[in-house]
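Assess this today:

___
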Amino acid sequence: MTTVDGIVVVDKPGGWTSHDVVSRIRRLARTRRVGHAGTLDPMATGVLVLGVERATRLLGHLALREKAYEATVRLGASTVTDDAEGAVLGGASPSGLSRADVEAGIARLTGPISQVPSSVSAVKVAGERAYRRVRSGEEVTLEPRPVEVALFELVSMAPSGEFLDVDVRVECSSGTYIRALARDLGASLGVGGHLTSLRRTRVGTYTLSDASTMEQLDSSFHVIPIATVAAQTFPRYDVDEAMARLVGYGQKLPDLDLGAEGPVAMFAPDGRFLALYELAGDPPIARPIAVFAT
């Protein structure tokens, strides 16, 4: 089988790490050159975007910063890991909370906010992942960072024994920790909170409708070719053979008007995706961002 450069969109199953998925795709694609555009926790399910071969270098240029989730927050207890897998730290009865109370708490966590990542995140502390330090018994305190929560919406809420389960939808920027939103919602309401389920429904323009389960990929592995991804994502510019050679070598093109701002996908006459170019400098000159021609 010839390995195809391109994108694989996976509906990650619960219990799998993102690295588990990468390992399986490496085996299916018969190449070590596989990378992902942002991890998902083992407990989480949903959209995970991976690049194969040359497309691993394309991932950083795709508009994948916006992400969407469906989640359940359990109010009434906080945990070490901010999810259901960690030991309970404490909490208070949420029985007195109304829908208006919860919606007010959600509103305080919507928009541009400063968020302290979960202590079991992959953020590095003195060169080591925070979650590894926590698992070794170390107490970790991380610095807050700016994130954007474009949508934090209450879908439903219902008692669950002594707790209150709140189903929510979230749309946010990369770097936003949904488990931290659960923690902070519980803290703002004075009862504690943690995440019990998480499903990512979108990464950039890729949704669950684009994703394949691991079982589907095992039986019929397929990759979205890099040329298709580039044509769907960026403005397209078709060049002639002479210019294709220059683009393939990553040459600047002083006399070329790309007709668009930002990255533009350059295509050869035979349909090959050659490179990403953009206009930069004063006066603007078409310059390469990344060259993919072989």
Q: What stands out?
A: The chain has three domains: 6-64+205-227, 72-153+171-192, 234-291. The radius of gyration is 22 Å. Residues 18-29 form the longest helix (12 residues).
